[in-house]
Design goal:
This protein has 506 residues and is an alpha/beta fold. 36% of the residues lie in helices and 16% in strands.
Length: 506
Amino acid sequence: MRGADLVARALARGGARQVFSLSGNHVMPLFDAALDAKLPILHVRHEAAAVHMADAWGRLTGEAGVALVTGGPGHANAIAALYTALAADSPLLLLSGHAPLGELGKGAFQEMAQAEMAAHLCKASWTVRAADSLGEDIARAMRMARAGRPGPVHLSLPADLLEENTEAAVPAPADFLPEPAVTALDEATLDALRKAKKPLLVAGPAAGHAGGRAALRAFEETSGVPALVMESPRGVNDPSLGLLAEVLAVADVAVLVGKRRDFTLKFGAAFAPECRVIEAGYGPIAAGAGPWARSGWRDEARSALAFRPAHWAGLAAAPDGPLHPVAVGRAVQRLLAGPESVLVADGGEFGQWAQASVEAPHRIINGVAGAIGAALPFAAAAKLARPGASVVAMLGDGTFGFHCAEIDTAVRCGLDYVAVVGNDACWNAEYQIQLRSYGAARARGLDLLPARYDQVAAAFGAHGELVERPEELAPALERAAKARRPACVNVRIERVAAPVFRRASE
């Protein structure tokens, strides 16, 4: 068989159920080999979108999402999306075609130092050097993506190796599996939590999927220790976690599980000086044996994290619009009632309002990286991973422009999510920085057109609706949810700053 056949069969044996790809010269043997390996390929419109889709797939399923792109500029387009996956602890395998080994240094077509370019954005990055090792390299990369702290791994696949014949065997299923994870909490750490008056467990993005959150809830129920996930670039001002800053500031013991003491925690200054901060590793979270004291601390912390200003309940837009983001979130919430529903939240201020006002069993956000633009690829992959679920992407108008051509992908592939665009005709996150830092007179250069993104979506074959008045929103969302094709609801919203919660705001 060819090296390409070995790669395709190895991916299939390793449990890959889907490959996200954009074609190109270097990887066409893999497109051919995937047919015999019965390995589905979803063909996208931009290489970064393939990586974003593999990222979302990894977060939702726990499997290593697989992206396949061509070499040279295709690889260069793809690696920009790796940073979002790396910061989100997302298991992912990026496979890039590569100039033939026999032509390197001679000016080969699209020759590029690909592994070196990707190395700083991955757990590991290398170029395969022999056709016989292709299967082993795939198995090793899939193991690494899921082992310990999950994350992306990159392999460059030289075109001559993909065409070369090989007698190497496909690795056994066990070769793709990471070593069993060791529990994150040793007895000394559990003892410190038991003795604390206001203990707290803070997990990193690797626990942000539904299974991770369920494990945290089980730990909290058993121990009485509030357990939460931090995965937002807003850190202590994460709008989905209410008065998080207050909770962190009064904890006396805080255990960080797969969570760095990074900028999101003000490099540790989010805790009181006398708080004991324990940095634990990655792994399963269990309360262990032994008694746990009960107090009112858990309820106090949970009440603070659930805080939303009382006046939100009465927020209403003017009869002629535009709509307040909270009113949009209130209407969107009705679409996410199912047990497998997925919320995608992306963008600057509107993305933060979405996280503050909407909940779902599964959630994918742009994450600690703070990069925007992935919402539409995320939503497509989420619908593929959860085909029977309602998937709603809430994204800003700036975000829409990054990957709007992926609506074509969703239409071609029958991925009927609903995209709700908060349209304030502005790069509003940066506009708010200008207002705070320089004043209204110097807030310049960030306006966008109040574009008809609904018509853009319709031109790709999706369902599109424009909402300019409050009474139009609920019917438009209902029609979008029943359209049986991808849908874009373009909502004129107020240009307001994202929420930062303080009790005084009530």
